Amino acid sequence: MRNRWQWRAAVLVAAVLTTVAVPFDAVPGLHGARGLAQPATAPAQDYVLGPGDVVEVAVLGEGELSRTAAVRPDGKINLPLIGDVMAAGVTPAQLAERITTLLRLYLRNPQVSVTVTQFRVERSFVYLVGQVARPGPVEIQRGWTVMEVMAVSGGVTQRAALRRAQIIRRSTGQTIPVDLERLLLRADRSADVPVEPGDIIMVPSLQYRVLVLGAVRAPGAYDLDDGARVLDALALASGPDPRSAIRSIGVVRNVASSDKPQVMTVDFTRILGGDASQNIPLQDRDVIYVPEGPLFSWSNLLAVLSGLSLFRAFFGL
Fold first, then answer.
1. What pLDDT score does 148 carry?
2. In this structure, are 56 and 82 located in the same domain?
3. How far is CA 79 from CA 19, 52, 60, 273, 313, in A?
4. For residues 140 and 38, what is the distance between their CA atoms, to the nearest angstrom?
């Protein structure tokens, strides 16, 4: 039993100390008191506890009630005498007040300190939607870009419209275009885009894909929207070059009822003159071929194209 002057001295010390606002080591003579531990990094005053945090709960003069506890997934910690206490959603100071209130049922004037000794690791995710190998959330790390996300998620499907992918940034409501063809097929890192937690990466489905070959400035495969026509495909290919025979541009089409591709010729000069009949609608997997000169045989071209693995793969032959 303490005598009367010892009890009064304890009350005076308690009056100096707050439940958590003043660290115990700030009071002369109390540094290194039993049951107290200093955090590796002092948390901000408004830091909110959550699952995964580790806290040091110290009760002045009651070493058997002091302990280190991890905040469980249900948000609670377990302490001697009082059992489970909800820790998630409050600051360390508020948790200390909560524990103090509960301990008053058993102790006359409990003095409680709560410090964070280990901070939880925040997990960040982006979400893949559309023509991707594995749709759904992808956990990311700080500094990741679309390239890293695609690398760990298995990439895109064959029906992905690579040029029309986009990031929906929920934090700002911004929509950011992403050219996955440049990024994934050409390894052009200038097309890469940093990602942020909560981003939605949307890869739409390919509607029309056509192949533009021959005497054009930028031959290659292009994705087109519904209703696209010859002029749209040639515009994506940067137009015919000076060597081209623009009066005899061919649209090569694989027809289900025939075992050989068919050719429809159009006059580009008439298209430019406003003749809509020459600007024919395109279909998925059409090939637009611009000859280099007037002396040209479509039958010879079809024979050559049919033997090319690229052409056969494009048509699914």
1. 95
2. yes
3. 17, 17, 15, 85, 67
4. 32
Q: Which domain covers residue 176, as residue numbers?
A: 124-203
Alpha-carbon dihedral 185, 190, 191, 196, rounded to 10 degrees = 130
Sign of CA dihedral 281, 282, 283, 289: positive
CA-to-CA distance for 129 and 211, rounded, in angstroms? 26
> In terms of domains, do 298 and 229 share one?
yes
Structure tokens at 137: 């959330």
Q: What are the residues facing 288 on neighbouring strands?
A: 212, 251
Q: Distance between CA atoms of 11 and 7, rounded to whole angstroms?
A: 6
Q: Last residue of a domain, which of 150, 171, 203?
A: 203
Instruction: For residue 61, report the phi and psi dihedrals to the nearest 5 degrees.
Output: 75, 5
Distances (CA, A) of 171 to 126, 139, 174, 288: 12, 17, 8, 42
Total domains present in the chain: 3
Q: Do the beta carbons of residue 88 and residue 75 sit within 8 Å? A: yes
How far, in Å, CA of 249 to CA of 230, rounded? Answer: 9
Question: In terms of domains, do 245 and 309 share one?
Answer: yes
Q: Are 29 and 108 part of one and the same domain?
A: yes
For the segment 154-166, what is each residue's pLDDT rounded down to a tens digit? Answer: 999 988 889 889 9
**Stretch 74-81: mean pLDDT, rounded?**
94
* Entry pTM: 0.44
- Residue 278 pLDDT more than 90? yes
User: Quick one: 77 and 156 in the same domain?
Assistant: no
Q: Is the pLDDT of residue 24 over 90?
A: no
Question: 264: which strand partners?
Answer: 251
List of residues 6+ apart from 236 with CB closer than 8 A: 212, 218, 222, 224
